[in-house]
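Entry type: protein chain
Record version: 2
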Amino acid sequence: MAIKRGIFRASIAPSILPATSFAQSQYTIAVDTFAPIDTDIFAAEPDGKNARRLFANPALDYNASLSNDGEWVVFTSERAGSADIYRGRIDGSGLTRLVDSPAFDDQAALSPDGKSLAFVSSRNGQADIWLVDLATMETHPLLTAPSGEFRPRWSPDGEWLAFSSDREPQRSSCAGATIPGGPGPFITPQYTSLYVVRAMERSCAA
Protein backbone atom coordinates (compact mmCIF):
# COMPACT_ATOMS: atom_id res chain seq x y z
CA MET A 1 0.00 0.00 0.00
CA ALA A 2 1.67 3.21 -1.13
CA ILE A 3 1.10 5.49 1.85
CA LYS A 4 3.53 8.36 2.19
CA ARG A 5 4.08 10.55 5.21
CA GLY A 6 5.70 13.95 5.31
CA ILE A 7 5.55 17.69 5.77
CA PHE A 8 3.83 19.60 2.98
CA ARG A 9 4.99 23.20 2.91
CA ALA A 10 2.71 26.00 1.76
CA SER A 11 4.33 26.02 -1.67
CA ILE A 12 3.53 22.32 -2.15
CA ALA A 13 0.14 21.96 -0.50
CA PRO A 14 -1.86 23.65 -3.31
CA SER A 15 -0.69 20.93 -5.70
CA ILE A 16 -2.23 18.28 -3.43
CA LEU A 17 -5.43 19.93 -2.29
CA PRO A 18 -8.17 20.86 -4.77
CA ALA A 19 -8.01 24.51 -5.81
CA THR A 20 -11.72 25.10 -6.23
CA SER A 21 -13.02 28.03 -4.22
CA PHE A 22 -10.82 31.12 -4.26
CA ALA A 23 -8.89 30.15 -7.40
CA GLN A 24 -12.11 30.07 -9.42
CA SER A 25 -13.59 33.45 -8.64
CA GLN A 26 -16.54 32.98 -10.97
CA TYR A 27 -17.97 30.38 -8.59
CA THR A 28 -19.56 30.93 -5.24
CA ILE A 29 -18.10 29.21 -2.19
CA ALA A 30 -19.74 27.11 0.51
CA VAL A 31 -19.43 28.17 4.13
CA ASP A 32 -20.91 27.13 7.47
CA THR A 33 -22.69 29.52 9.80
CA PHE A 34 -23.44 28.73 13.43
CA ALA A 35 -26.53 29.53 15.47
CA PRO A 36 -27.35 28.47 19.05
CA ILE A 37 -29.38 25.41 18.06
CA ASP A 38 -28.75 24.97 14.33
CA THR A 39 -26.06 25.04 11.68
CA ASP A 40 -26.80 25.63 8.00
CA ILE A 41 -24.85 25.71 4.75
CA PHE A 42 -24.58 29.10 3.10
CA ALA A 43 -23.12 30.08 -0.28
CA ALA A 44 -21.36 33.39 -0.82
CA GLU A 45 -19.20 35.17 -3.34
CA PRO A 46 -15.43 34.60 -2.96
CA ASP A 47 -15.17 37.83 -0.96
CA GLY A 48 -17.89 36.63 1.45
CA LYS A 49 -20.61 38.95 0.18
CA ASN A 50 -24.20 38.05 -0.79
CA ALA A 51 -24.42 34.99 1.47
CA ARG A 52 -27.55 32.89 1.01
CA ARG A 53 -28.81 29.82 2.82
CA LEU A 54 -28.81 26.46 1.01
CA PHE A 55 -30.86 23.34 1.85
CA ALA A 56 -32.54 24.88 4.91
CA ASN A 57 -33.53 22.35 7.57
CA PRO A 58 -33.88 22.47 11.37
CA ALA A 59 -31.25 19.73 11.72
CA LEU A 60 -27.48 20.28 11.76
CA ASP A 61 -25.75 20.77 8.39
CA TYR A 62 -21.95 21.20 8.33
CA ASN A 63 -18.60 20.44 6.69
CA ALA A 64 -19.48 21.65 3.20
CA SER A 65 -17.11 21.35 0.24
CA LEU A 66 -17.45 22.22 -3.44
CA SER A 67 -17.08 20.07 -6.52
CA ASN A 68 -14.17 20.93 -8.79
CA ASP A 69 -16.46 22.70 -11.29
CA GLY A 70 -18.19 24.68 -8.52
CA GLU A 71 -21.62 23.32 -9.47
CA TRP A 72 -22.21 20.98 -6.52
CA VAL A 73 -21.93 21.11 -2.74
CA VAL A 74 -21.37 18.01 -0.61
CA PHE A 75 -21.97 18.26 3.12
CA THR A 76 -22.87 16.37 6.28
CA SER A 77 -26.42 16.57 7.58
CA GLU A 78 -28.26 15.03 10.52
CA ARG A 79 -31.71 15.70 9.02
CA ALA A 80 -32.49 11.97 8.80
CA GLY A 81 -31.41 11.23 12.36
CA SER A 82 -27.75 10.31 11.83
CA ALA A 83 -24.78 12.05 10.23
CA ASP A 84 -25.03 11.27 6.50
CA ILE A 85 -23.51 12.76 3.34
CA TYR A 86 -25.65 14.80 0.94
CA ARG A 87 -25.04 16.49 -2.41
CA GLY A 88 -26.92 19.43 -3.90
CA ARG A 89 -26.45 22.09 -6.55
CA ILE A 90 -24.95 25.44 -5.63
CA ASP A 91 -28.31 27.07 -6.43
CA GLY A 92 -29.97 24.97 -3.70
CA SER A 93 -31.67 22.41 -5.98
CA GLY A 94 -31.16 18.70 -6.57
CA LEU A 95 -30.56 17.61 -2.98
CA THR A 96 -29.67 13.89 -2.77
CA ARG A 97 -28.41 11.70 0.05
CA LEU A 98 -25.25 9.90 -1.13
CA VAL A 99 -24.29 8.04 2.05
CA ASP A 100 -26.92 6.54 4.35
CA SER A 101 -25.68 4.65 7.39
CA PRO A 102 -26.34 4.58 11.15
CA ALA A 103 -22.61 5.30 11.55
CA PHE A 104 -21.16 8.79 11.76
CA ASP A 105 -20.25 9.79 8.16
CA ASP A 106 -18.54 13.13 7.64
CA GLN A 107 -15.81 15.19 5.91
CA ALA A 108 -16.76 14.32 2.33
CA ALA A 109 -14.89 15.44 -0.79
CA LEU A 110 -15.81 14.87 -4.44
CA SER A 111 -13.11 13.71 -6.84
CA PRO A 112 -12.06 16.24 -9.53
CA ASP A 113 -14.08 14.38 -12.20
CA GLY A 114 -17.13 14.20 -9.89
CA LYS A 115 -17.35 10.41 -10.20
CA SER A 116 -16.15 9.39 -6.73
CA LEU A 117 -16.70 10.56 -3.19
CA ALA A 118 -14.20 10.21 -0.34
CA PHE A 119 -15.48 10.54 3.21
CA VAL A 120 -14.72 9.56 6.79
CA SER A 121 -16.91 6.97 8.53
CA SER A 122 -17.04 5.32 11.94
CA ARG A 123 -18.80 2.19 10.64
CA ASN A 124 -15.78 -0.02 11.41
CA GLY A 125 -15.40 1.33 14.93
CA GLN A 126 -12.91 4.09 14.21
CA ALA A 127 -12.52 6.95 11.75
CA ASP A 128 -11.65 5.38 8.38
CA ILE A 129 -11.61 6.81 4.86
CA TRP A 130 -14.21 5.30 2.53
CA LEU A 131 -14.90 5.74 -1.19
CA VAL A 132 -18.18 5.74 -3.13
CA ASP A 133 -18.46 5.15 -6.88
CA LEU A 134 -21.28 7.58 -7.66
CA ALA A 135 -22.31 5.68 -10.83
CA THR A 136 -22.86 2.34 -9.09
CA MET A 137 -23.08 3.60 -5.46
CA GLU A 138 -20.62 0.84 -4.51
CA THR A 139 -19.00 1.79 -1.21
CA HIS A 140 -15.76 0.39 0.16
CA PRO A 141 -13.08 1.36 2.69
CA LEU A 142 -9.87 2.79 1.33
CA LEU A 143 -8.04 2.60 4.65
CA THR A 144 -9.00 0.46 7.66
CA ALA A 145 -6.20 0.87 10.18
CA PRO A 146 -6.60 0.82 13.98
CA SER A 147 -5.71 4.52 13.90
CA GLY A 148 -7.95 7.37 12.79
CA GLU A 149 -7.86 8.91 9.32
CA PHE A 150 -9.37 12.34 8.73
CA ARG A 151 -10.08 15.10 6.17
CA PRO A 152 -9.44 13.40 2.80
CA ARG A 153 -8.63 15.73 -0.08
CA TRP A 154 -8.05 14.81 -3.73
CA SER A 155 -5.05 15.68 -5.87
CA PRO A 156 -5.96 17.68 -9.02
CA ASP A 157 -5.55 14.57 -11.21
CA GLY A 158 -7.70 12.41 -8.92
CA GLU A 159 -4.92 9.84 -8.47
CA TRP A 160 -4.07 10.58 -4.84
CA LEU A 161 -5.80 11.40 -1.59
CA ALA A 162 -4.14 13.50 1.09
CA PHE A 163 -5.35 12.97 4.66
CA SER A 164 -4.32 13.40 8.27
CA SER A 165 -3.85 10.47 10.64
CA ASP A 166 -2.88 9.75 14.22
CA ARG A 167 -1.31 6.41 13.28
CA GLU A 168 2.01 7.58 14.76
CA PRO A 169 0.65 9.60 17.69
CA GLN A 170 3.85 10.03 19.69
CA ARG A 171 6.13 11.12 16.86
CA SER A 172 6.44 14.58 15.40
CA SER A 173 7.19 15.38 11.78
CA CYS A 174 10.47 17.11 12.66
CA ALA A 175 13.62 14.98 12.73
CA GLY A 176 12.00 12.16 14.69
CA ALA A 177 11.57 14.24 17.84
CA THR A 178 9.25 12.89 20.53
CA ILE A 179 6.23 15.03 21.33
CA PRO A 180 5.53 15.45 25.08
CA GLY A 181 2.22 14.48 26.63
CA GLY A 182 -0.51 16.85 27.74
CA PRO A 183 -0.01 19.60 30.31
CA GLY A 184 -2.18 17.91 32.93
CA PRO A 185 -3.45 14.48 34.01
CA PHE A 186 -6.84 14.96 32.31
CA ILE A 187 -5.57 16.31 28.98
CA THR A 188 -4.49 13.92 26.23
CA PRO A 189 -3.40 15.77 23.09
CA GLN A 190 -4.00 14.19 19.70
CA TYR A 191 -1.12 14.52 17.26
CA THR A 192 -1.59 13.91 13.56
CA SER A 193 0.63 13.89 10.50
CA LEU A 194 -0.15 14.33 6.79
CA TYR A 195 -0.13 11.36 4.42
CA VAL A 196 -0.95 10.64 0.79
CA VAL A 197 -2.24 7.39 -0.71
CA ARG A 198 -3.28 6.29 -4.18
CA ALA A 199 -7.03 6.68 -4.39
CA MET A 200 -7.78 3.43 -6.24
CA GLU A 201 -5.86 1.12 -3.89
CA ARG A 202 -7.57 -0.69 -1.02
CA SER A 203 -5.88 -1.61 2.21
CA CYS A 204 -6.95 -3.54 5.30
CA ALA A 205 -4.06 -2.20 7.33
CA ALA A 206 -1.79 0.80 7.53
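Comment: The CA atoms of residues 121 and 150 lie 9 Å apart.
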